[in-house]
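Dear Dr. L.,

I hope this message finds you well. Following up on our conversation about the binding site, I have prepared a predicted three-dimensional model of the protein together with adenosine monophosphate. For your records, I am including the exact sequence and ligand specification that went into the calculation, followed by the structure tokens. Please feel free to forward this to your student if that is useful.
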Amino acid sequence: MLTTRPRGTNDILPGEVEKWQFIENEARKVSRDFGYQEIRTPIFEHTELFLRGVGETTDIVEKEMYSFFDRGKRNITLRPEGTASTVRAFLENKLFAEPQPTKMYYIGPMFRYDRPQAGRYRQFHQYGVEVFGSHHPSVDAEVIGLACTYLEKLGLSGIKVHINTVGCPECRPQHHVNLLKYFEDKKDKLCNTCQDRMAKNPLRILDCKNSTCQEISISAPTTESSACSECKGHFQQVLNYLEILEVNYLVDPKLVRGLDYYTHTAFEILVQGIGAQSAICGGGRYNGLIEQCGGKPMPGIGFAMGLERLLLTLNNEKVNLTGLLSNPEIYIAVTSPKAQELSFRLAMELRKKGISTEKDYFEKSLKAQMKAADRFDVKFTLILGEEELANNKIIVKEMATSEQKEIPIDDILSYLERGLLKND
Ligand code: AMP
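The resulting structure of the complex is given below.
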């Protein structure tokens, strides 16, 4: 127990963590280029927020939340996703009073009591964006374009966006009627949860992971077939803007978001080769969510991307993320205990100047220290012994050429700075 992490969680070890830093930094860069600002919300929130903001009939709320009572007897939940918290922060901090739209992004851990397997964890990380305040179809396309640009910048090719319209409060009642009619004589074959959904929210049946329910749903009426003219018009314009962006998309009538506050656009980015968990990004418009969370009616749209799945995909596609490991530039080898203090001071000075420096911590032999310098793949090794100390000099070995020089200690900083510049 003491040496085992909880099921569904991961350690991100040195060597791997550089890849994380890289994809996070790229996410920050692309978000900035598109005019999105970062928001950081708490890891835990009042449970009520997710009941409202994610939806009581969703799998997340029904089965997957990490909820507990804290010592003050408050009902708390570790955030299972980022949108509800972002909406809460938008309302609580009155960001709606600023010029609109509000464009934000977040990166961080999420928690779901899911069944762990490759690409599915209980603690996982998402990069997500949200835009509040604009109905404009170009925003839908911009959000999708941002996700694609990010993936392309990371080196993924062949990205395909599956997209659908899920209707709006105007046309959804008719769609519900059509669905109920369709499922009526198939009800007995549906799973128990879906039989419940017949009464509560038949659209959610199309979301069910049960294979029989999925089979039955294949010929169910599509949202597009009952979409009102506004929904159809919006969808057409979104597709139009996607063409302008040259986004590769596929209209997928099976793609649904089964909650009332989801409106118009729903999309997913699927990739091959990461097993059953093929979605790396999911998003859509939620024009009813801000009102559902206690605000004035205001449109919104966003996406969330799973960073574990993204890294799995990058690994599978053999996108080269190695070379991100930054080696120290300098190694200081010490051959006399008397030189320890000076080498220590020198290491600190170099580091303060922004020159990454490693040293020996075991008073090892020179041979062992030179081996370590090789392993670190440094550019220069400094060798400091009794003789050098006495002469106020230091030996500098340029590792690429094996050339050695004696440099006065007072000149070492500027010598290395010049040498490192030359090597860049
Ligand atoms: P969702 O918030 O369910 O729409 O998920 C958005 C994205 O987050 C998915 O496309 C996945 O890439 C990722 N994701 C969702 N759940 C998990 C999980 N349990 N483990 C790893 N990634 C996940």
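In brief: The CA atoms of residues 125 and 393 lie 51 Å apart.

With kind regards,
A. P.
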